[in-house]
Amino acid sequence: MTEFTIRPAVEADAPVILELIRGLAEYERAPDQVVCDESRLRASLFGERPEAEVLLACIGDQAAGFAVFFHNYSTWLGGKGIYLEDLFVRPEARGKGIGKALLKAVAVIAKERQCGRMRWAVLDWNQPSIDFYRGLGAFALDEWTLYQLNREAIERLADSEG
Amino acid sequence: MTEFTIRPAVEADAPVILELIRGLAEYERAPDQVVCDESRLRASLFGERPEAEVLLACIGDQAAGFAVFFHNYSTWLGGKGIYLEDLFVRPEARGKGIGKALLKAVAVIAKERQCGRMRWAVLDWNQPSIDFYRGLGAFALDEWTLYQLNREAIERLADSEG
């Protein structure tokens, strides 16, 4: 069995984090959507006010996967939770339990910080992931659909009359 | 036309925020899901490290609606955005443009803080809201479904072997 370790990412990991972000975007069939570059990653994740946290799974000194998360908030619970933005294991490192170990590491943090829930979004065609998550006790918020405003629409609304 | 104002909520607003949370949960047909109480609200929203921000819309000194939001993060953009957790206008105060003004006020904040996107979740049967959001340039992330782990499942995963 391959040994791997999980640790919080540090700024020197920025290049490999960017590789993993791109690897996941390719898996999600949206490689063109990644406009992030290394300097943005350094500023947003390792600056004075980090905007998200990253856990890296490593085999030896090679990064094999990552989890990216931040805190969300529930008015129903009146407290914070964790939103898992990305969970990804490189194709060549799959089948070793790394994905589950990353998710478990996030759950340990959620428990320590007394988070009432964890959420994340899954692509509808990604049946292996759906089965994996359901096996851990996750359920789908089937009634809900996410909506998004991009930057242009935000600015149009912000600048609108009335 | 009824005049209204929009302002950031302060701790003294906690009771009315709780009323609005319950009002929205009733509209969403999930009133039993609200376990939040006033002391949790005060601690989570107005303590040393606020977990979300609240804008109140008021007619005179009466709160007519609210928006609750926090920052999310996009690895594709390499930067933060805004997640709108709640947007609600009391039934008796509708039709005056308060919902749009609240959403616009959040967009103004998103623009000021250079957020690359705004997201929120909408109930699939809530067609008036869907039409309203689409009219502002929002699009549905149709391919994605939200999954959730509740506290018990988080603890089970956190405490699991391996």
**Rg of chain A from C-alpha positions?**
17 Å
Largest sheet of chain A: 5 strands, mixed
Structural class of chain A: alpha+beta
Kindly report the average pLDDT value of chain A: 96
CATH domain class of chain A: Alpha Beta
Percent range for helical residues of chain A?
25-40%
What is the rounded distance between the termini of chain A?
Answer: 63 Å
Q: Estimate the global geometry of chain A from the Cα principal axes.
A: globular
**Major sheet: arrangement of strands of chain A:** 1-2-3-4-5
From the structure provided, what is the oligomeric state, counting identical versus distinct chains? homodimer
Number of helices of chain A: 5
The CATH topology label of chain A is: Aminopeptidase
Detailed description of the structure:
With 162 residues, chain A is α+β, with helices and mostly antiparallel strands. The first copy, chain A, has one domain (5-159): Gcn5-related N-acetyltransferase (GNAT) (Aminopeptidase, 3-Layer(aba) Sandwich). Helices cover 34% and strands 31% of the residues of chain A. The first copy, chain A, has helices at 14-27, 38-46, 98-112, 127-135, 151-158, and strands at residues 5-8, 53-59, 62-74, 79-89, 117-123, 139-140, 144-150. Chain A has a 5-stranded mixed beta sheet with strand order 1-2-3-4-5, sandwiched between helices. In chain A, strand 2 (53-59) and strand 3 (62-74) form a beta hairpin. Chain A is globular, with a radius of gyration of 17 Å. Chain A starts with a strand and ends with a helix. At the A-B interface, helix 1, helix 2, strand 3, strand 4 and helix 3 of A face helix 1, helix 2, strand 3, strand 4 and helix 3 of B. Strand 5 of chain A pairs antiparallel with strand 7 (144-150) of chain B, so a sheet runs across the interface.
